[in-house]
């Protein structure tokens, strides 16, 4: 790419300078930047910053490294680059970081749009962004800049200890519009759903201990697919990646919270398995000490009402073990109708198989909470 600066209304992209070194050092001490850029030296010193600033290899290889600068002060507030250029395929990869003092202002999205526009003007046909699923803020930037999710790439990134981790790939082609990708599952209004007695809020990092407690209850484990308690690493990844899975339109994971006490009481999830047909599935579980208060029914109604009103979901399904009369009563009370009996549908305990009753809900079937 050409090294000329790029001016936009909200950010200035220019070559890095020696006087940017102190801001680079301050930003690279940020825990979030260190977490998702594990190759950064620790501690990151002024000498490291100067070596990187003076490195012209990206320009020489057809890529670029820009400072993201405040257009009013010209102070560095982040960096963005085009690297891993494949000239034969006319493609490259965009990477970015923004300093803690400049976050939440849309500068990363503006910078990404500007770099993409310059790259396409100079002959690139395809641009990629690779995102760790534990980094939903970066994923939001990619989606806002018009990059479409394409799937996961196993072991594509290296951790600081030499192990590898998966990333999700988003791409934008030269003909794609420079506008946000439409999401299949939007954010909740105000970040939660509530009927006064019960509140549903997104699963997030910090919920690991609660989820470990929840999925250690024997009857909850028995209805889990597969019926095996998840280990702590699986729970950690589920909490860390929940927001990204939501952004990608794959699933919604919510914690049931007793509104009066603020205590987490259970879990309910929406799994968007068939977007092409507009069908999704819900599943739920509640800690024993909160049962008998209608939380599963209330949560089901809240979640289904939101889904029917705010997404293309036109049909919601659920399944119950034939012996689980309590869950069947929950679904009936919410308006679900029994539609079928599926033999040997799910894995059971000790390697066996169990039957599953299929329930379905259409928007007109939904019964409001009372």
Automatic annotation (TrEMBL):
One Pfam family this chain carries? Answer: Acetyltransf_3
Q: Which CDD domains match?
A: NAT_SF
Keyword field = Transferase
Q: Give TM regions.
A: none
Q: Which Gene3D superfamilies does the entry link to? A: 3.40.630.30
Residue span, N-acetyltransferase domain: 11-168, 198-364
| GO MF terms, alphabetically ordered | protein N-terminal-serine acetyltransferase activity; protein-N-terminal-alanine acetyltransferase activity
| Name listed for the protein in its UniProt record | Protein N-acetyltransferase, RimJ/RimL family
Annotated source species: Asanoa hainanensis
Lineage of this protein's species? Answer: Bacteria, Bacillati, Actinomycetota, Actinomycetes, Micromonosporales
